[in-house]
Design brief:
199 residues; LPS export ABC transporter periplasmic protein LptC; membrane
Length: 199
Amino acid sequence: MAAPNRYSTLIAWTKVALPLIALALLSTLFLFSRTPNPEDALPFAAVDVEQLAREQRLSRPRFAGTMEDGREVTLVAETAAPATTNPNLILLTEVETRVTLGAGDRLTLTAATGDIDLAAQRVDLAGTVDAATTAGFALRSERVTVAMDTMRLAAPGPVVLTGPGMTLEAGAMEITGPEGQAFLSFTGGVRLLYQPGDQ
């Protein structure tokens, strides 16, 4: 019976001793504490919280997608910010978009501004849009729309296409191509200047 009594006594002393030790530690903490020096405070950034909430944006974002036939679309921008009037719209600046055309050819488009319509799975590029292919063709238009889910690229306004030995002007252009192919369609007063010697 002696062992249970010693155990009960130890438990009783522990219940008293542990709170006293905790109280002593707290007392020494307050005893040795000193008044904080404002010069030792951590530096902070002067951030306009209202502006940050109003103008949410990302720097150098990258978006990527795969079309129905497996071709890839990638997009990089200097900044991206949600549109205040449409939650499905992302506004972009200094945009570069790359589209796989097929047979190893790739189209790279650059524009000053653009936006991504998440609901429509579409990228709209605006300003002066410059495009170049790995096959040596270059295109310029004021606006280009790129579908993210299927192979469709459209320039609804005037376009100028240059390539080896040729210059083509048209009122509009569209690129479509299922299953790894790419077909160009030009409409609206198409003019072709062919210069064989410049190839």
